[in-house]
Amino acid sequence: MRFKIPTAMAGLAVLAATVALSGCAPAGSSAASSHEIVVGAVAEPEKAPDPIMDGSLAGYNYYFAAFDQLARFDADGKINPLLATKWEHNEDFTRWSFTIREDAKFHNGEPVKASDVAFTYNTIKANPTGDPASYMEMFESAAVGPQNTVEFTLNAAYSAWPTIVTGVSIVPEAVYTKLGSAGFAAAPVGSGPFVFDHYTRGVEYVLKRNPNYWGTPAEIEKVTFKTVGDADARLNGVQSGSLDIALIAPNQVSAVSGSSSISVKANTSNGVTFLGMNSSAGPLANQKVREAISLAIDREAIVKTVLAGRATVDNQLVARNVGGFNPNYPAAQRDLAKAKQLVAESGYSGQPIPFQYATNGRIPLSSEIAQAIQGDLAKAGLTVTLQGTDQASLSQIIYGKKAVAGLYLNTYAPSTMDGDAPVSSMFGGQQNDYAMLPATKALVAKTRTVSGQARIDAYSELFRLNDAQALIVGLYTPDTSYAVDPELRWTPRADGMITVGTASFGKG
Predict the structure, then answer these.
(1) Are strands 36-41 and 245-248 parallel, antiparallel or unpaired?
(2) pTM (predicted TM-score)
(3) Residue 186, Cβ density class (10 Å: 0-12 exposed, 13-18 middle, ≥19 buried)
(4) Mapped to the 3 state alphabet, what secondary structure does 172-233 carry?
């Protein structure tokens, strides 16, 4: 926990800040105490932190503090109204009407209007290179409707549209139009429980409590997202008191269990860690090589030994708490003998297969996981060369214009708690769809036109085709564990985002 300090001590605080991991020295004009939270963020957005253009998990942590969405998932993954009070749809799910609450205000005091909502969505549509546009292909247009509503027109049936709106932060039309994307990222205006203070790239993103929040005001006065890529540094930060919340690796949990200086809180992740492949080049263009890779990997051993059992083997590419998951889908198979046979039949001649992964960042113990996979593939007769890099560089390769060289380790945790975003990226003709199969693209489209069990069945059909072609190898769904200040009342979310709007200090 942290307190404002008397002005007379501010000089000492600044000196201390130069050596503290948090880099934060809150100074006040009075001796009155007020709490703040410092979050050890794994990474920061690769793009400028503008919610119209950026859709990274790191960015959503900021946006969910400073902005509101039409609806939001609670900690358990249940969707609830936020800026919208209710919604309804037509018979075929192609038109949706959301009623906008009338008491919400932006940080500049202006009311949140239906026109701001329509502007936000239409601006995302007008910027197809932005991350949010990648999971809104079904969106056609938004218009202001009668009685303070926003009317959404979709280009195809989409029964899961309310999950999409949970990831879209509403911006004020007048401000965004005046500043543009870069200007707005530098001085954002939202309607959330916290107000933007400052951002230093590579260091921190700082917000302060919004005393005029239309909803229940936050108890925390200040929240700092401190970029700390190294897992040991994050854990040490919580132990020393310079951080209050930090994601920790599975093998760190037992080491701090029972500690008086750390409380461990966990939830099942909404993301599947997977082994991606550039199936269009080199040895990976051979289906038998890809099948051998899938059969050779010992997922159970990775979960048990590397991840200390704090994960679940999962070869579906959506997690069990995400829309599209089938609890009855066949389990992943390991057959080393068959893998060796397939390698021999493929004509593989020992050509090294590059394996790119981040040595720190979004996937805890990524280096150890990569080494385990390399060892498994060596047993099948495949030569894999490890190419570890930083998270930012890997993300630029995976999501940029440059193709991945061979294998890559990645995870996709959809903030919308729905499978549409990951499967669109992997199989719908986007950057990570190296195979570009008409059949997978058609199945992605099919998942959007059905609901209920029929939608789950469509996802299963897509995943069976993926298994048959061995295009992307699902590995596991991790448990997400956090080291937390024992005095902090805070609940981890199923969607993996760190939100502090309802957090508070004090035992009990």
Answers:
(1) parallel
(2) 0.74
(3) middle
(4) CHHHHHHHHHHHHHHCCCCCCCEEEEEEECCCEEEEEECCCCCCCCCCCCEEEEEECCCHHH
